[in-house]
Design a protein that fits this description.
This protein has 149 residues and is mainly alpha-helical. It contains 6 helices and 3 strands, in the order ααβααββαα. A 3-stranded antiparallel sheet has the order 1-3-2. Helix 2 packs across helix 5. It is globular. 18% of the residues are buried.
Length: 149
């Protein structure tokens, strides 16, 4: 039996469809952005996480919603390419800290700078109060969906 659509459920359906389309556009933007720097979105996520603060591979994986194995593979590549290093972790010998090298930090800074310029261009086309309302709506939706688990 199919649930009866109400005006509210139809609005949510339309919102989710639009969100899916926006998500695709955002993914394509980040793919183009990172490709200009010879990177992928996943590699940039790991670079940025390692550059933000002290992070181990499992911590980065949890924070980014990726598998530990995927992050480990990327971290190994970054180390091989001299963009990052594995440093001793005094709290856990078997889980080294992934740190950016100066070259890795420069690369992350360049990608972040390009992304900030893009956000600035996009934000100038949007109303600040509408953005605040959208953020609140997304947070409420995240909370409601989280309670469905």
């Amino acid at each position: 039996m199919v649930a009866r659509a109400t005006p509210r459920t139809e609005l949510l359906r339309r919102f989710l469809l639009d969100w899916t389309q926006l998500d695709g556009e955002l993914r394509r933007h980040v793919e183009r952005l990172t490709a200009r720097h010879g990177q992928t979105p996943a590699r940039w996520k790991v670079l940025t996480a390692a550059g933000c603060d002290i992070r181990t591979v499992p911590q980065i994986a949890r924070r980014m919603g990726l598998t530990r194995q995927a992050v480990q593979r990327i971290a190994n590549q970054l180390v091989d390419e001299k963009l990052a290093t594995f440093d001793e972790n005094p709290d856990h010998r078997a889980s080294p800290i992934l740190s950016l090298t100066p070259h890795g930090q420069t690369l992350d800074d360049a990608i972040c700078s390009d992304h900030a310029a893009w956000r600035d261009r996009i934000s100038r086309r949007l109303d600040a109060s509408a953005l605040r309302s959208a953020i609140e709506t997304l947070r409420r939706l995240e909370h409601a969906v989280g309670h469905e688990r």
